[in-house]
Amino acid sequence: MLEFILYQFIEINMAYCPSIHHLEMDEESLLALTEIFGHDDLKLKLQFAISGGHWINTFLGNGAVETLYSVHSTDFDMMTKAISATNRITQRIVEDIITTQAIRSDVNTKQLLFWRAMYNGCILKK
């Protein structure tokens, strides 16, 4: 068990966010927190892959006529929707991680309280 006291809860949307002192996290919970904090990087990579991949495909190796046609036929509204969907994708992944941790039965009471608070909408602040 590792001691985890670097973060505190902030209340969002009137959710009750308990104060948990001297919280000790097991390895699985620490791995889950690492995954949660790493999803901002995933969101940026998804957005780059969507937009960057399109622009590379449009301009790289094409002549003037092909590039003009490719830019003209691009559905920018659809590309914008795809890029904005990356927020929801990463949010859903984080929700799944939190839900999985909140229903674990092999954790101590403070850990269970922590994950249920996260599930109910509390956010960690560094």
Residue ranges: pLDDT <50 for 5 or more in a row?
A: 1-8
As a percent range, the share of helical residues equals 55-70%
Average pLDDT metric: 76
Give helix and strand order, one letter per element, not per position: EEEHHHHHE
Cα gyration radius (Å): 21 Å
The chain-level structural class is mainly alpha
Q: How does the major sheet shape up? A: 2 strands, antiparallel
Q: Strand order of the main beta sheet, please?
A: 1-3
The number of helical segments is 5
* Estimated share of beta-strand residues: 5-15%
Rounded to the nearest angstrom, the distance between the terminal CA atoms is 21 Å
* Tally of strands: 4
The shape, in one word, is elongated
Task: Report what the structure shows.
With 126 residues, the chain is mainly alpha-helical. It is built from 5 helices and 4 strands; from the N terminus they run E-E-E-H-H-H-H-H-E. Helix 1 packs antiparallel against helix 4, helix 2 runs antiparallel to helix 4 and helix 4 packs antiparallel against helix 5. The chain starts with a strand and ends with a strand. The N terminus is likely disordered.
Question: How is this fold's topology laid out?
Answer:
Blueprint: E1 2-3, E2 8-10, E3 24-25, H1 27-37, H2 39-59, H3 64-73, H4 76-102, H5 109-119, E4 123-125
Antiparallel strand pairs: 1-3, 2-4
Helix pairs in contact: 1-4, 2-4, 4-5
Task: Throw out a few tags for this protein.
mainly alpha; 126 residues; two-stranded antiparallel ribbon; elongated; two-stranded antiparallel sheet; 4 strands; single chain; disordered N terminus; 5 helices
